[in-house]
Amino acid sequence: MKDHEILNLYLARDERALRESSEKYGSYCHSIAQNILHNLQDAEECVNDTWLQAWVSIPPARPVRLGQYLGGITRHLSLDKYRQRGKAAGGDVTVALDEIAQIVASDVSVADQAAQREMLMAIDRFLWALPERECNIFIRRYYHMDAIKQIAKRYGLRETNVKKILSRTREKLRAYLEKEGWTI
Known about the structure:
Shape: globular
Structural class: mainly alpha
């Protein structure tokens, strides 16, 4: 089923939307949750909560890219659960979050949603300007929370090459955000 058809089911409050979402995007959402949580039961819980959150939020939300919307919900729920575990969670996700926090931790208040949106739009513009492979590697690491090893395998690179690409991209992002007027 196409995304616009699934979205129409949500808008019509037809529960088939949940089944269709699960069929089309279940494995995608599960991989995001699993990459963050590394726990099958917790990942499954977050994916199930994703369908509930989508049901509650559509309408009024009318996502242009349903898969991205559902993946975003899964990511946020998974990161919330990850943070609830505290420092004991550790692992590759902590490293990825620390790497990116050094750049995007700025003078933007958590309560200032307009400023957060502006920063996200600036990051989005930056990513669109990158070469495709560099952009994809960055997204795999900091959005999907893929391990360096997974990214290296996916792109046929050495882990050291992936680390260099990510480091250079983070530095480019830092420079771009500063040029755009963000305090880093």
